[in-house]
Amino acid sequence: MKYVSIVALLVAGIIHLLPVLGVMGANTLTRLYGIEVNDPNTAILLQHRALLFGVLGVLMLCAIALPWLRVTALSVGLFSAASFIVVAMAVGGYNPPIGRVVFADVVASVLLTAGLVVELLLISRKTT
Asked: What is the DSSP string of 29-68?
């Protein structure tokens, strides 16, 4: 049972590290998301987004080795993945590459939810 959160953090951490490649520029962003990035302002926003996902991915991977950080990393990761799903569903009409991101975030959300539940159960057992 204690490995559920570790697996969740590992998988979700890797999922959140994948967009970091977008920092390399507009061509990489186009390959990742299937959209043309012709405007420097859009490139700046998407590249910054890529960096933030990298920070989140590193946080989740660090939490594997730092048990005191796990609830925070699982919670923030879950909020990130679930909020993308909500936004994508609300807007709709997304392309297949964005659909793959939605699918990856569904997988991450399920794992992170399971990991968070396990961590909270482990904490409650220690305090009782």
From this structure: HHHHHS----SHHHHHHHHHHHHHHHHHHHHHHHHHH-GG
Distance CA 46, CA 113 (A): 27
Q: If we measure between CA atoms, which residue out of 83, 81, 96 comes closest to residue 18? A: 81
Q: Give 63-120 pLDDT, tens digit per residue.
A: 999 999 999 999 999 999 999 999 999 999 999 999 999 999 999 999 999 999 999 9
The pTM score is 0.91
DSSP strands (E only) in 18-60: none
Q: Phi and psi of 39, rounded to 5°? A: -100, 130
Neighbouring residues of 77: CB distance < 8 A, sequence distance ≥ 6: 9, 12, 13, 16, 56, 59, 60, 108, 112
